[in-house]
C-alpha cells in the first residue's frame, strides 16, 4: 500500500486523471500532455538559433524535429527541457507555462544522444534515480525501477554496471530512467545516432512500441529523415531556426511546401523552367524549348507569369516508355545501377540537367546501358512547381 | 641477431642512467647516514644505531614542529582540495569570459618564484598579525598547492560528460545534487589524490615556512634548517628518511586512487 498515494504525488498536476498508480502502471497507458511552443526565439549574440517557432503538439503525439545541424532543432528541445531559456516566446505543457521553470522541476523525461547513464551506479540505481530525487523509499524505488526495466525488455539487468552493457542496451536503460516516474512528455535528443544501423532500426520500433504503450507525448530530434519519416506522427522540418514545414510524413513527402523541404526530404529531380502563363492551367517553358501545360494544382507556391520556377519530380514517379498520361522526356543515360528492389537510372536531359529514375522490377530492363537515350513519362500528377531557381 | 648499436643510442642510455643516478644517489646517501654512530654528519657512515630516530621521537621540540606541520598540512589539504575543485569546476563548466584570467591567477603560484611569494606574504602577514600562526601557514600553503589541485582536477572533471549532470537534472536533481551525486563520486579518487599531494607539498614546504615561522611556531622543515645550521647531527638524515617513507606511501596511495578512477 502507499503506492497509490505516492504515485499521485509524483504525478503532480495530472492527479486524478488516472486512477491509483501501482507498480504495474509503468506498463499501463498514461496520458501524455499537450505542448504549445509559441513565437520561440533564441539568440546567441547576433545569431538567431531559433527564429519565431510555433509548434502545437497534441497530447500523446509523436513529433520529430528534423533538420541539418545548426537548424535550431536541438535548441528547441533544450528549451522545452529547461536547459536553455529562450530569448522570447513561451512554452506551455498542458496549460502550465514552463518557459522559465528550472529543468529539474519540469517532470519531463529526457534521453540524450550519448546514453548519459551514471557510470558509478548499478543499472537499477540509474533507473531508480528519478524516484530517489522524488523522495520514494528504497523498496518502492527498486520495485518500480524493475518494472521500468521490464518495459524496455531488460528485466534482470539491474545489478549490472552501465559499462557491462552494449550501446543499445544502455540506451534502453536511459529510456527506462526517462519513463520510470511516468512523465507526461518524453524528450529525445538524437537518441539513436550513436548506434549502428541494425540496432538503430530495432530501437526505432522499440521506441514506437513504447510510445503506443505509454501514450506519452514524444518530441524526437533527429537529422536522419528516414528515422523521422518512420517514427513520427508529424515532422517539423527546420532550417536556420525557422520551421519550413510541419506535417505528417506522407504530406511532407508527397507535397513538400517549398524547395528546401523538397530537396531535404527524400530524392528529388529539379528542372529550371520559366512560367509563361497562368490560367486554368500553368504553361511552363522548358530549357530545351518545349512548353508544357501543367494542372493548376501542380503549383505548390503561386506561379507568376514571366518568373523563374522549378519543376520537381520524385525519381520513383518516372515511368519508362512513352505514355499519354503525362509529359515525355528523353534522357541520355550515364549510369545504370542495380539497387536491389529497383533499378536506378541516372542520366541527363537535352539541356544537361541531371535526371534520376528508380524503376522497380529491374530484371526486364537489364538491356539498358550507359549511352542509351531512354524515354520516360512524367505523370501529370507527379509534377510539382515551386518559385525560384534550383541551386 | 642483435640490432646494431650506434653511438647515439649509447649516449642516450648513458644520459638516462645519469639522470636516474642523480635522482637516486642522494637517497642512497641519506638513508645509511641516519644509522651512523658518528655524532656529526659523515659519509660513509660508521656502525649502526637507531639513536637518532629515538632522539627525534623523544625531543619535545621536534615533536612540536612535526605536530605543527601535520596540522598545517591537513588543513591545507582540506582547503586546497575543496577550493581547487570548486574553482576548477567553475572553469570547466563556466562560460565566463574571465575563465582565462581566473586560470592564470590559480596557477600563478607555480610561475612566481616561491621566494618572491614568501617575502610578499611575510610583509603582509607581519602587518595583519598572521605571521607564525596556523591560519597564516594554511593560507600560504593553500595558495602554493592550489595549482596542483587545479591540474589534477581539470584532468578529472574534463573527462566527466557535462550531459551526465543535465541527465541528473532532467531526473529531478538540483544542480548541486547533480554535482554531489553524479560528478563528485566520479572524480572522488582524483580529489583524494590531489588532497594527498597538497598534504605532502605543504608538509615539507621550506621557503614560505622559513619566512613565516615565528620564535615558537616552527614547521618541521624550518626546524630542520635550524638544526643543520647549529648542530648538524644525524637526526637530520633520520627525519629525512622518515619523510621519504611518508612521501612514498602517499604517492603510492595517490597512484592507487588514480588507477582506480581510470578503470571506472
UniProtKB/TrEMBL annotation, chain B:
GO terms for biological process: transmembrane transport. Pfam families: BPD_transp_1 (PF00528). Keywords: Cell inner membrane, Cell membrane, Membrane, Transmembrane, Transmembrane helix, Transport. The chain crosses the membrane at residues 12-35, 67-92, 104-125, 137-157, 178-203, 235-257. InterPro entries: MetI-like, MetI-like_sf. It is found in: Cell inner membrane; Cell membrane. PROSITE patterns: ABC_TM1 (PS50928). Residues 66-254 form the ABC transmembrane type-1 domain. It is a multi-pass membrane protein. Belongs to the binding-protein-dependent transport system permease family. This is ABC transporter permease. It comes from Bradyrhizobium frederickii.
Amino acid at each position: 500500500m502507499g503506492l497509490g498515494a505516492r504515485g499521485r504525488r509524483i504525478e503532480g498536476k495530472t492527479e486524478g486523471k488516472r486512477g491509483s498508480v501501482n507498480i504495474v502502471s509503468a506498463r499501463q497507458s498514461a496520458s501524455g500532455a499537450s505542448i504549445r511552443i509559441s513565437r520561440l526565439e533564441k539568440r546567441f549574440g547576433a545569431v538567431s538559433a531559433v527564429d519565431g517557432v510555433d509548434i502545437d503538439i497534441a497530447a500523446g503525439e509523436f513529433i520529430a524535429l528534423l533538420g541539418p545541424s545548426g537548424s535550431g532543432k536541438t535548441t528547441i528541445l533544450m528549451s522545452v527541457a529547461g536547459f536553455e531559456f529562450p530569448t522570447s516566446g513561451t512554452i506551455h505543457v498542458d496549460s502550465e507555462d514552463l518557459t522559465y521553470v528550472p529543468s529539474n522541476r519540469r517532470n519531463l523525461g529526457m534521453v540524450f544522444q550519448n546514453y548519459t547513464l551514471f557510470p558509478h551506479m548499478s543499472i537499477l540505481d540509474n533507473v531508480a534515480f528519478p524516484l530517489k530525487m522524488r523522495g520514494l523509499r528504497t523498496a518502492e524505488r527498486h520495485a518500480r525501477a524493475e518494472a521500468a526495466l521490464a518495459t524496455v525488455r531488460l528485466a534482470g539487468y539491474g545489478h549490472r554496471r552501465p559499462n557491462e552493457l552494449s550501446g543499445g542496451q544502455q540506451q534502453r536503460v536511459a529510456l527506462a530512467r526517462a519513463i520510470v516516474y511516468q512523465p507526461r512528455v518524453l524528450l529525445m535528443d538524437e537518441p539513436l545516432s550513436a548506434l549502428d544501423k541494425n540496432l538503430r532500426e530495432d530501437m526505432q520500433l522499440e521506441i514506437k512500441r513504447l510510445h503506443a504503450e505509454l501514450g506519452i507525448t514524444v518530441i524526437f530530434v533527429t537529422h536522419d529523415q528516414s528515422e523521422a519519416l518512420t517514427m513520427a506522427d508529424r515532422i517539423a522540418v527546420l532550417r536556420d531556426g525557422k520551421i519550413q514545414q510541419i506535417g505528417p510524413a506522407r504530406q511532407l513527402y508527397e507535397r513538400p511546401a517549398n524547395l528546401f523541404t523538397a530537396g531535404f526530404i527524400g530524392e528529388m529531380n529539379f528542372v529550371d523552367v520559366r512560367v509563361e502563363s497562368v490560367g486554368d492551367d500553368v504553361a511552363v517553358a522548358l530549357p530545351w524549348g518545349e512548353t508544357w501545360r501543367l494542372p493548376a494544382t501542380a503549383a505548390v507556391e503561386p506561379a507568376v507569369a514571366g518568373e523563374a520556377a522549378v519543376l520537381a519530380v520524385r525519381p520513383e514517379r518516372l515511368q519508362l516508355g512513352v505514355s499519354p498520361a503525362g509529359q515525355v522526356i528523353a534522357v541520355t543515360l550515364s549510369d545504370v545501377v542495380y539497387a536491389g528492389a529497383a533499378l536506378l537510372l541516372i542520366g541527363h536531359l537535352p539541356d544537361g540537367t541531371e535526371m534520376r529514375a528508380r524503376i522497380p522490377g529491374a530484371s526486364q530492363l537489364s538491356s539498358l546501358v550507359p549511352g542509351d537515350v531512354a524515354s520516360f513519362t512524367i505523370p501529370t500528377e507527379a509534377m510539382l512547381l515551386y518559385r525560384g531557381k534550383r541551386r | 641477431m642483435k640490432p646494431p648499436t650506434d653511438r647515439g643510442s649509447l649516449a642516450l642510455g648513458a644520459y638516462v642512467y645519469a639522470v636516474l643516478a642523480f635522482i637516486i644517489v642522494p637517497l642512497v646517501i641519506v638513508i645509511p647516514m641516519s644509522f651512523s654512530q658518528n655524532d656529526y654528519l659523515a659519509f660513509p657512515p660508521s656502525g649502526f644505531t637507531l639513536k637518532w630516530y629515538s632522539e627525534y621521537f623523544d625531543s619535545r621540540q621536534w615533536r612540536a614542529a612535526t605536530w605543527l606541520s601535520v596540522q598545517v598540512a591537513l588543513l591545507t589539504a582540506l582547503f586546497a582540495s575543496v577550493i581547487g575543485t570548486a574553482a576548477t569546476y567553475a572553469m570547466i563548466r563556466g562560460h565566463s569570459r574571465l575563465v582565462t584570467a581566473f586560470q592564470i591567477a590559480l596557477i600563478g603560484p607555480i610561475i612566481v618564484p616561491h621566494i618572491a611569494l614568501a617575502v610578499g606574504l611575510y610583509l603582509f602577514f607581519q602587518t595583519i598579525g598572521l605571521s607564525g600562526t596556523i591560519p597564516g601557514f594554511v593560507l600560504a600553503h593553500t595558495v602554493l598547492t592550489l595549482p596542483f589541485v587545479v591540474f589534477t582536477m581539470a584532468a578529472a572533471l574534463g573527462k566527466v560528460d557535462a550531459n551526465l549532470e543535465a541527465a541528473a537534472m532532467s531526473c529531478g536533481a538540483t544542480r548541486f545534487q547533480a554535482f554531489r551525486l553524479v560528478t563528485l563520486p566520479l572524480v572522488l579518487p582524483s580529489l583524494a589524490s590531489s588532497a594527498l599531494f597538497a598534504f605532502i607539498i605543504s608538509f615539507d614546504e621550506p621557503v614560505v615556512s622559513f619566512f613565516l615561522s615565528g620564535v615558537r611556531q616552527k614547521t618541521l622543515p624550518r626546524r630542520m634548517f635550524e638544526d643543520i645550521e647549529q648542530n648538524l647531527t644525524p637526526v637530520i638524515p633520520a627525519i629525512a628518511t622518515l619523510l621519504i617513507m611518508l612521501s612514498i606511501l602517499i604517492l603510492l596511495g595517490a597512484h592507487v586512487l588514480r588507477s582506480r578512477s581510470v578503470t571506472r
